[in-house]
Design goal:
Elements: H1 5-22, H2 35-44, H3 50-63, H4 67-71, H5 75-82, H6 88-106, H7 114-117, H8 125-134, H9 145-153, H10 162-170, H11 175-191
Helix pairs in contact: 2-3, 2-8, 5-6, 9-11
Length: 214
């Protein structure tokens, strides 16, 4: 029997309540001190773990302390600075181009709208939603690998396209809960709902999860 939207919303609310108890300190696991640092760290996190990015960014942000330093960086040198995050050629090129556009079009400041953020090289909806939600406090649903996997297993979506998943998850909870719910999905995906061997037998939301595809 197909679950109604009302039923999914009720189930999502119960899951979020449990998440709030289990993951009280859930937050963005990237380390940053400014919107620019979060923007760049998120770009580096593509196909890379947050832990690895956090190992790279202290020295990186010390070497390139502002948008002008990144915009004027030598691309070959920047590649080496971020090599361990993978896909370093594309990332270096995008970071430099992104910072140049920030200077040219936004006065060197990171914009606070989805439309403007998506104009930046290397920035997609996932990165934009994370910056909007965690730095500017503007509601957004961050669809990363954890959100994709868990939302399908939990029966909250049948989609594989990140934007369609984003729209499905937006229907479940009030906007003010979107960002925190996504942080909880990351924590839950690491602790219990892992990709290869989910720990369903000890999962705190086991009774609320249909375990689709597990």
């Amino acid at each position: 029997m197909r679950e109604s939207l009302k039923a999914r919303r009720c189930r999502a609310a119960e899951i979020y309540k449990i998440f709030g108890e289990v993951y009280k300190d859930a937050d963005c696991t990237l380390e940053y001190k400014s919107a620019l640092q979060l923007l760049i760290a998120t770009q580096l996190a593509a196909q890379c773990t947050d832990a690895r990015v956090n190992m790279v960014t202290p020295a990186l942000f010390a070497k390139y302390p502002d948008v002008y330093a990144f915009a004027n960086a030598d691309e070959l040198e920047l590649r080496e600075d971020i090599r361990s995050t993978g896909f370093f050629r594309n990332k270096a090129r995008n970071i430099i181009a992104c910072c140049r556009l920030l200077i040219d079009d936004f006065g060197g400041e990171v914009p606070n709208s989805m439309e403007e953020l998506l104009k930046l090289p290397g920035v997609g909806r996932k990165t934009a939603n994370l910056v909007l939600g965690d730095f500017f406090g503007i509601p957004g649903v961050v669809v990363d690998t954890h959100a994709t996997r868990l939302s399908n297993r939990m029966g909250f979506t049948k989609e594989s396209d990140p934007y369609k998943i984003e729209l499905d998850l937006q229907k479940l909870l009030p906007p003010e809960d979107w960002a925190q719910f996504c942080h909880c999905l990351v924590y839950h995906g690491r602790a219990f709902c892992t990709a290869r061997a989910p720990k369903c037998d000890i999962c705190p939301i086991e009774q609320l999860c249909p375990k689709v595809g597990v």
